[in-house]
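Below is how a single chain appears once it has passed through the pipeline. First comes the sequence as given, then the structure the pipeline wrote out for it. We keep one example in the README because the format questions we get most often are answered faster by looking than by reading.
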Amino acid sequence: MELLNHSSVAIDGETVRRIREDKRLTQFYVSKVVGVTTDTVSRWENNRYPTIMRDNALKLAEALEVDLTAILKQEVDLEIAEEIPVPKNSKRNIWVSLVLLIGIALLSLFYLLSQPNPLPVVDLQAQRHLPPYAAPGSRVLIRVELSTDKPLKGMILKETFPAGWRLHESEPVVSHLDSKAGIARWIFRKPPLQTQVFYILEVPEDSHPGTDMTITGELIANPDGQRSATLVKSVGAMLVKPFHWADSNGDQIIDDLEILELSDLTEAAESLHLDWDLIETIWETGAYQWQTAKKQFVPVQEPSESFE
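Resulting structure:
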């Protein structure tokens, strides 16, 4: 097709919308894969632009998981067609051919519908590892493990936080964050079979025992045009108490075993701005205490039952 040799191509917006909706893809997902805004995708689907850059068209076809030719406009030069003389019997032949084609198409459709059509199955797994404690006004580290049994072109992790909780930082960087609604999304293109996401949440200062600590999430993929999704399962449960998130047993001590567990996280999450030095200082000093007024943990020689 000659259009393929040009830097710009004409796409069929209605076809793009139909393919996207058939595959249950959102304009937001497509825009992230192509690298444009959702408004641009909307304009493409409404044929607001006569042509688009060929590179964007190739990325759009990749996002929709189709060949580029499937979304290009198929134009017919009517003026040339009118100049071609039409034999008297050609109209009758055209109708006969059209009826035969319709019959063949109906038979093919009936055959396909009568055959078993197993949907492609992908095994998605998602686990969220929660620290046991979250002190009001502090920051806690959350780890999410994602896995799939087959290579994917893309997937999206969506996490929803309790009211008032705020995402401070993440690795990898969050793709879209709605702080007001407490929703964060990460988009992965061609992810590895196993992926880890780390993020830091700020605990509201007015949190108290009994506060809703529920975090919900969903992992969404689109293998072979069929939407697959699974809920993110939480491992462990957080309690609102004045203990450090790394103190797994709440004894106001970060012991050798707990520091070893943390060392496994530092390499993957070391880019996050958590006070790793303070954690080591608490480990070396022997214990810690939570200062409510300053909203911080302070190393001390021995654990104390009272908190300032």
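Helices lie at 13-22, 27-34, 38-45, 54-64, 78-83, 90-114, 256-269, 276-285.

See the next section for the split statistics.
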